[in-house]
Amino acid sequence: MANERTDSVWKTVLLVFGIIFSIVLVPGLILGIPVGGVITSLTSATSRESIQTMTKEANLSETIYEMLMDEILSEDNKIDDIKQEFWEEIVRDSITVEKVDEIVTVLIDSAYSGTKPEIKLSEIVAGLRKGLDELRKNGFHDLYSAWADGTDSKYFSAEFVQSFRTEIEDGLLSDYADYGAASVEELKSLYEKQNGAGSFSQLLDEYADEFNDVWESEFADEFDKMFDEMTDDMDREFNETVYEAIRDPDVRMVFDSLNEISQKSSTVKFVIYAIFLGAVLLLLVCYWFGTAGFVVPAVALILGGILCKLLTLSERYILNQVNQAIAEEPGLEGMTKPVFDIARGILAPIFDGISRFGTITIGMGVLLVLLAILKGILKKNVVTADQ
After folding, report:
1. At CA 123, angle to CA 118 and CA 127, rounded to 5?
2. Which of 127, 208, 209, 297 has CB 3.0 to 4.6 Å from 280, enough for a Cys bridge?
3. Which pLDDT tens digit goes with each residue over 138-188?
4. Which DSSP category does 307 fall into?
């Protein structure tokens, strides 16, 4: 009898504490769950893998590639003598999104760890060299055909073809000035009249061969010299430049902080989940594992999870604010989409993490409700069996 009275007193005391803790813990859980979701998502987002995922989500490589192409193929960087379509083909074959993505991945890894990058640009140079090697081998015949037969040049601009035509024709008229011809057509007529039909075509072939020899030697020398300068220690110098930027104190402070937060991510998650589970267990004990002990924390967990879900709705608003800020910033016209993609790539994993955290807490709440129902059913069956 004394033991039953003692148990009753303890249950009453625990119930009083349960009510007190409910007043404190239920609002704390409801408001703390979204905060916990934000904290766990932010700590997870600081890992190397998450940053790499963010760059994929943000289409960062594609954005950099398009900006790079726009700069290389802009009017300011146009090569006057080379046909723009051919030059663009060479550049796009040599510099691809995949290669830019590889460089971005190496850069992020190096910046995150503070190690010297090993970026290989030689493949890009090799692609440029391959395209221009085609020009070296076939360029003169293409140019000569454009002059002699009037065909469209694959490699050279119309202005360069015209300058070549002028140079060839002036050279012919100068070398054979004794014929007194005022044009190439007149020179052809006079030359064949003196040397026989078809002789002028043979003369042009010999003339072209001389020009071709000069082309091969001069172009080859310039070609090889240009690429020798590009490839000599290029990878080493580029990587050293990048490494110097990576070691900048401001850059190191950012990435070292991210690294440190990432290393503590598991601990932070453990503490947050331990606090929530501890609060649930405390309420269960205080209500002596009664129905209220399951339902009270379940309601808090479900409401907190719903707040997490509602919090994710602010992502669109934040992105719209970013777009508006960029649109109003002088000098950044036309950058709305790239900045939007980058902002979305950064925010999407964070809000996905918050949403997952909300799903977990809602699931925990539903589980507690199901356990309360199961407990009620079992208790009812036991009472029925005793009767």
Report:
1. 160
2. 297
3. 888 888 888 777 888 888 888 888 888 888 888 888 888 888 888 888 888
4. H
Distances (CA, A) of 186 to 58, 177, 193, 328: 65, 12, 11, 66
Q: Which residues pair with 82 in a beta bridge?
A: 156
Q: CA angle, corner 261, sides to 257 and 266, nearest 5?
A: 165
What tokens were used for 282? 């405390």
Instruction: Show the tokens assigned to 224.
Output: 């090889």
Instruction: Give the Cα separation of 108 and 254 in Å (integer).
Output: 12
Task: Choose among 67, 137, 65, 75: nearest CA to 103.
Answer: 65
Q: Is 147 exposed, middle or buried (0-12, 13-18, 19+ CB in 10 A)?
A: buried
88, 137 in Cβ contact below 8 A? no
Helices vs strands, H then E, count in the chain: 15, 0
- Quick one: tokens of 12? 């009453």
- Whether 347 contacts 284, CB under 8 Å: no
Give the residue from 36, 34, 60 showing the smallest Cα distance to 346: 60
Token pair in block for residue 179 = 């014929």
| Beta carbons within 10 angstroms of residue 133's beta carbon | 13
Question: Collapsing DSSP states into helix, strand and coil, what is residue 82?
Answer: strand
Between CA 13 and CA 16 the distance in angstroms is 5
Contact partners, residue 101, CB within 8 Å, separation at least 6: 61
Half-sphere exposure of residue 14: CA atoms within 13 angstroms, side-chain side: 18
Closest by CA to 271, choosing from 24, 31, 18, 32, is 32
Span 101-105, average pLDDT: 88
CB 279 within 8 A of CB 36: no
One-letter amino acid at 330 equals: P
Q: Does pLDDT of 322 surpass 80?
A: no
DSSP-derived letter for residue 58 is: T
Cβ pair 371, 294 in contact under 8 A: yes
Question: Distance of CA 292 to CAs 10, 164, 366, Å?
Answer: 17, 94, 14
Whether residue 46 contacts residue 296, with contact meaning beta carbons closer than 8 Å, is answered with no
Coil vs helix vs strand at 121 = coil
Cβ neighbours of residue 39 closer than 8 Å, sequence gap 6 or more: 268, 272
pLDDT for the residue 360 = 92
